[in-house]
Design goal:
alpha+beta; 4-stranded mixed sheet; 363 residues; globular
Length: 363
């Protein structure tokens, strides 16, 4: 059974906290409804007298037979508010997801329908002590990155949206997709963090003074890195389904991946994560992203991976661009099967529809 009890308030993209953040992204989408609600609150007596004065006109009218809504159907998703949909996405993902501690191998395994998709061994404490040297060096970049670090405490949808020209008015469902991926990816890191129980950099090296409050959960793996690379993985596929909307598509995808890397590294600059935390998050995020894409687009298979941390490893963007699945795939023929999920498919269709196909002349 998955361990789901730990959350951190600083990560607004996590779990229920993120549900409300995702709903906020639909401000423009629901502006009219919000105005009606505000009117009802500001003028309750006027609304009641206006209704009561004319409601007698329907007395005696024969109403059509009422119709049921279809049960357990994605066709009802338009009827639910954004925060409720966010909870549905989370529930649909977490139902087949699991994480277990393997005492024999001192490792966490992440599973999908009881099939392992990632093995994450616990690094020795000496690995983190060596990594602390890298964290000290990263602190030199705080002046340049401080503003970003603070802005990314509570999520980072806007940083991806900047490269894609997203707006709340035009792309509410694309924003909902990004927020959903962040929420799921943030949640699934909480169990590994608890089970691996790895100390933060400021606990191992007195030279490290975090720029932000140290989060109240384990260091390894990085939730920010997991979230960022889950988003980048999903967007890399999603953008290819926008029907030629972006003529410079490959450049946009590269920027999305670079943004994910920068978000991850910012946590090392802030002094709250080691580079190997981000490398592990990179691995988890890619696998989570690929599972979400499978839930959105249909049947797919994923090779299980294993990440073994190295004390000398930094985390550079070249590591992202040069990643080879064969370097981390577990031996054997076993694969993880991911099937389409109706509510995820609904969201994917809604989001891709926000990018109208461009004609040949660009009009």
């Amino acid at each position: 059974m998955p361990f789901l009890g730990f959350q951190h308030a600083a990560h607004a993209a996590h779990a229920a906290h993120a549900a409300h953040a995702a709903h906020a992204a639909h401000a423009a989408h629901a502006a009219h409804a919000a105005q009606i609600t505000a009117s009802a609150l500001n003028h309750p007596e006027a609304l009641q007298t206006a209704s009561q004065a004319i409601v007698h006109l329907v007395n005696g009218n024969q109403a059509d037979a009422p119709k049921d809504l279809p049960p357990n159907s994605a066709s009802n998703m338009d009827r639910w508010s954004g925060d409720i949909r966010q909870r549905l996405y989370m529930a649909e993902f977490l139902n087949p997801f699991g994480s277990q501690w393997n005492d024999k191998d001192a490792a966490v395994t992440l599973n999908w329908h009881n099939t392992t998709f990632l093995v994450l061994p616990r690094p020795q404490i000496g690995v983190f002590a060596k990594q602390a040297e890298l964290v000290v060096n990263y602190m030199e970049q705080r002046e340049a990155r401080g503003g970003e670090i603070m802005a990314q405490l509570d999520g980072f949808t806007d940083f991806f949206g900047l490269h894609l020209g997203l707006t709340a008015a035009r792309n509410p469902y694309t924003i909902e997709l990004i927020e959903t991926v962040q929420a799921i990816a943030g949640q699934v890191t909480m169990a590994p963090k608890h089970m691996l129980a790895c100390r933060r950099p400021d606990e191992l090296d007195a030279r490290i003074n975090p720029l932000i409050p140290t989060p109240g959960h384990g260091s390894y793996p990085s939730a920010h890195a997991t979230q960022a690379f889950a988003v980048a993985t999903v967007l890399s596929v999603f953008l290819r389904e926008t029907g030629g909307f972006y003529e410079d598509l490959n450049s946009r995808i590269r920027l999305v991946k670079a943004q994910a890397h920068r978000i991850a590294v910012n946590r090392t600059v802030a002094g709250v994560h080691y580079p190997i935390d981000s490398r592990a998050g990179f691995m988890i995020g890619m696998q989570i992203g690929r599972i979400i894409v499978g839930m959105c687009t249909g049947q797919t298979t994923i090779k299980p991976w294993k990440f073994q941390a190295d004390e000398n490893e930094d985390f550079q963007f070249t590591d992202v661009e040069n990643f080879q699945e064969s370097d981390v795939s577990l031996p054997g023929p076993e694969v993880v099967n991911v099937s389409e999920n109706p509510v995820f498919r609904w969201l994917w269709h809604k989001a891709t529809a926000e990018f109208p196909a461009m004609s040949v002349d660009g009009s």
